[in-house]
């Protein structure tokens, strides 16, 4: 059995590869040959009725790839339509096996899950999504500050819809002015795709691609992201 890898942020950009289909999990027959640094299992898309998802986490982790588990709310672009707090036992259970979980900034589960993670010595991705627009820099910095103040284990993830080139500048400024601790910043949509390639070179600790199918607007294949990041910064039209 291969020892699990301890997940560390801040030593360089990591590519997250998202899985939304059961047949891409070990229990669905997929070989563990994922081209990414972290595997994100989207439990809200795969479905909690899928038997053995905890075993899938164990198998991937034991193969040396950290697992991030996400059970995303409908209001945050996911498929979990039940009450927020009903996710708590599932995410707590996932936290016992996985290297990391994701919980939304506005979720009622954020504080208790961060407390559990701290006890286990694990990080939590605390995510803010805005699918309508990119708020002003001051608003984003206020949200970022609240995430960081809420828990020492929180890794902020700020993701907004990019509607104009100025939005990219806003996100770049957010990233550039707030790197005293690990931070993930990305843009969504066609204009936001470039940020998934460029921002890792500017200090974003994570960037997200997909392994089976896109789970967010403007998302690229994880393998392609790794190639582009390895090749260094490119102009917007090159992605």
Description:
With 239 residues, this protein is of the alpha/beta class. The chain has one domain: Aldolase class I (TIM Barrel, Alpha-Beta Barrel). 34% of the residues lie in helices and 20% in strands. It is built from 8 helices and 9 strands. It has a 9-stranded parallel beta sheet. β3 (67-70), α3 and β4 form a beta-alpha-beta unit. α3 (88-97) packs parallel to α4 (110-120). The protein is globular. 44% of the residues are buried. Residues 233-239 have low confidence and may be disordered.
Summarize the topology.
Layout: E1 14-19, E2 38-42, H1 43-46, H2 53-62, E3 67-70, H3 88-97, E4 100-104, H4 110-120, E5 124-130, H5 137-150, E6 154-161, H6 165-177, E7 184-188, H7 193-202, E8 206-210, E9 220-221, H8 222-230
Parallel strand pairs: 1-2, 1-8, 2-3, 3-4, 4-5, 5-6, 6-7, 8-9
Give keywords:
about 240 residues, alpha/beta, TIM Barrel, nine-stranded parallel beta sheet, 8 helices, disordered C terminus
């Amino acid at each position: 059995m291969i020892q699990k890898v301890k997940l560390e942020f801040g030593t360089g950009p990591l590519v997250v590869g998202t899985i939304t289909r059961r047949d891409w999990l070990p229990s669905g027959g997929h070989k563990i040959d994922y081209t990414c640094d972290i595997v994100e299992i989207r439990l809200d898309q795969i479905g909690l009725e899928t038997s053995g998802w905890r075993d899938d986490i164990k198998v991937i982790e034991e193969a040396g790839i950290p697992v991030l588990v996400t059970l995303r709310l409908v209001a945050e672009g996911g498929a979990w339509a039940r009450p927020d707090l009903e996710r708590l036992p599932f995410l707590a259970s996932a936290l016992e096996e996985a290297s990391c979980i994701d919980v939304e900034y506005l979720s009622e589960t954020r504080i208790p899950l961060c407390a559990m993670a701290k006890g286990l010595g694990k990080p939590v991705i605390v995510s803010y999504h805005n699918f309508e627009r990119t708020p002003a820099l001051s608003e984003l910095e206020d949200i970022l500050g609240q995430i960081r103040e809420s828990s020492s284990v929180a890794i902020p993830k700020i993701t907004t819809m990019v509607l104009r080139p100025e939005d990219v500048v806003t996100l770049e400024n957010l990233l550039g002015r707030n790197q005293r601790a690990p931070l993930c910043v990305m843009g969504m949509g066609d204009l936001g795709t470039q940020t998934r390639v460029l921002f890792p070179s500017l200090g974003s600790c994570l960037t997200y691609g997909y392994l089976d199918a896109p789970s967010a607007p403007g998302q690229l294949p994880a393998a392609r992201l790794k190639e582009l990041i390895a090749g260094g910064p490119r102009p917007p039209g090159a992605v």
